[in-house]
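Page 42, continued from yesterday. The earlier attempt failed because a stray header line got pasted into the input along with the sequence. Redoing it now with the clean sequence only.
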Amino acid sequence: MGGVRASRPMSGAGRGDAIAARGRGGMAAFRALGLAPWLAEQARQMGLLRPTPVQAACIPAVLQGRDCLGCAQTGSGKTAAFVLPVLQRLSEDPYGIFCLVLTPTRELAYQIAEQFRVLGKPLGLKDCVVVGGLDMVAQALELARRPHVVIATPGRLADHLRSSSTFSLAKVQFLVLDEADRLLEQGSADFSADLELILGAVPARRQTLLFSATLTATLGQLRALAANSPFFWEATAPVKTVEELEQRYLLVPEALKDAYLVHLVQSFQDQHEDWAIIIFTKTCKDCQVLNMMLRKFSFPSVALHSMMKQKQRFAALAKFKSSIFKILIATDVAARGLDIPAVQVVINHNTPGLPRIYIHRVGRTARAGRQGLAITLVTQYDIHLVHAIEEEIKLQLQEFPVQEQEVLQILTHVNVTRRECEIELEGTDFDEKKEINKRKQLILEGKDPERAARGRAELAGIRRRNRECREKARQSLERRRQLRLSRKRQRGVERRRRRMERQQEEQQ
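This time it went through. Structure tokens are written below.
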């Protein structure tokens, strides 16, 4: 049997030549899609060596002027699939406002803006990010300068359209909806009223591009609504999560969930100190408490949830992305679209109630061909949710092995620490902030509780005054009736007195 000849290690120069060759091949592949040489070079410098399937399918269609609906897994390069062709069209006829991108979260808006800036640097691209939590006056001034690209959340952009006349969307060439399923579906963040206003402000003759990781009934209906020779592309992979993602579950009693979480984090920190971990929670309060608890155990964690101020959210993401903190505890505000490439582990502290939420959560790891691990903590009440997830992703989750004895050893300490954190949080104005945020949302939706209370109070006052008026009228009528009766009796008495006097006179 012939032996296998050992290959000689490639020299540094050889490796450089190989990388350069791959880069040239990638440029040729992007140019074959119809992109200009300068744009293909920008893609290469950004590390996009070869078009992904969604890019290869959608970029030519967009350049042909067609509306596009792209549905592909998270981490598949959907953002570049619309940024690249938009920049090419902009370079041919640069003006502002040329493109409007709508996205459901603030963090995703800034991430998309970053890709526009990097890829559009040779154009001297001007962009404007319009999201909540920041000064509206400063945003209005930026919009008035007519940037080439506006990246916005629907709520804040709708606020500007209602209150300002310093800018116009009448010449928008591209309308892009990223994470389109979340923008178009009814739910906790209902964008329908804001979208209706925005769609009324953009021209009917435009290109509409919609991208999402999940295909919903709402998105499916849009295929019939698209006007410009609509192009639809959906990833053909039967599994809706990438092959590089290892998906596990851990069956735990509800009362032991936090102890299992601490054990998992400790194990990963001991074995892989440089690994980045995202822990997803159900509520803002859970997120805050878990972060406080892990910090008490000396874990390098930071929280990200919707009750944090925008500057705090930016700071938290920056610390996590720069590896200052290795653990990010987040609500689903971070589950959609955020591209944090070097995340090795995702832990679901709660089992997501909807399979698509699970898909978006675990999609934060195993991105761009990297390996990743997702572990979901499943209680006795969540079995049916796991079955729904498995049916959706066409994959059976495998159990993750742990040393239960080690978990039991830390159980009491973890539970006591959690309770201490809950008491500490109760001593702050966290719940008060929650009520304030809730009231702000109601006000934006035209459901100001104080205004409603004032309206109810005014209505009650009107009803009370009406009752008082009716009572006064009744009393007045009653007094008049009594007065008439009294006068009638007096007249009767007077008549009887005169009659008696006449009778006496006649008898005399």
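Notes: The domain at 23-234 is CATH 3.40.50.300 (Rossmann fold).
Reminder to self: strip header lines before submitting.
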